[in-house]
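Troubleshooting entry. Yesterday's outputs looked truncated, so today I'm pasting the complete records for two proteins to confirm everything comes through intact. If either block looks cut off, that's the bug. Protein one:
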Amino acid sequence: MILFHGSNTDINDIDLNMCRPFKDFGRGFYLTTIKEQAVNMAKRVSRIYGGDPMVNIFEFNIESAYGMNIKEFSQTSAEWAIFVMNNRSRGFTDNDSDACNNDSKYDIVIGPVADDGLTALIETYAHGLADIEKIVSKMRYKNVSDQYSFHTERAVRLLKKVGVENV
């Protein structure tokens, strides 16, 4: 499969230490199957940090990840919302929990992106203003996109760079 990564630079060597913490699925290298999503991210990153918007293109064969610890969310759910909330929270400390990936226990995590609208719903739950099932029912009406996040060197080695495009 082809995966896209929006950036402000051409990425030839993936350095997980350069990846920001407190993302949806924890610190990792994030890609998507949706080119338009990567283009939008490249433009956003370039506006914030400078540089030229670029889409880095990688090939990934999920069958080559056999034996790796992979967590997959096929859709938004209570489990997904709690997982995202825990990974994004600077105050969450139970890193041994299966409901977070701050310790990179999962080599690869696949699932929906928590956009600003979904983030607002998750915050509503975090502040005790709604129960998780109510939040999840509202999420089902949101348009979601996908993300593949790679959290370990072993996982990153499965990505083969096949191109880069200026956008």
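Protein two, checking that the full record survives here as well:
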Amino acid sequence: MKRKIKFLSITLVSFLLLNACYDDNEETLYRFTTANCDLSNVTYNQTIAPIIQSKCVSCHSGTTPNGNLNLENHTQVVTAVNSKSLYQRITNTANPMPPSGLMDECSIKQIKKWIDSGMPNN
């Protein structure tokens, strides 16, 4: 009888522990993929400006921006792209920008899509 109780206890605890580790939340499982990356409607105002604002403007704005690179508006971002300093820096793994680490892959793909589309101010 004691063996049976011990076996059932071990089985129950094992079952509970294994179930506790199961996670089928798609966002958690695939957070590092670009499966949910919308590249169909990339615009400056709705896509690119928010990325630049959240990842770049804290260092690249004002009267003395880091690297002499100001990214506060569309014209300045286009200038940075044309001078080869924006896209190359956000994809540079040796010296990543932002300094905290490379942007997520979706943001990089969205910026590339916008650049390839002619960098419209839309």
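Both blocks look complete. Sanity check on protein two: The CA atoms of residues 46 and 60 lie 20 Å apart.
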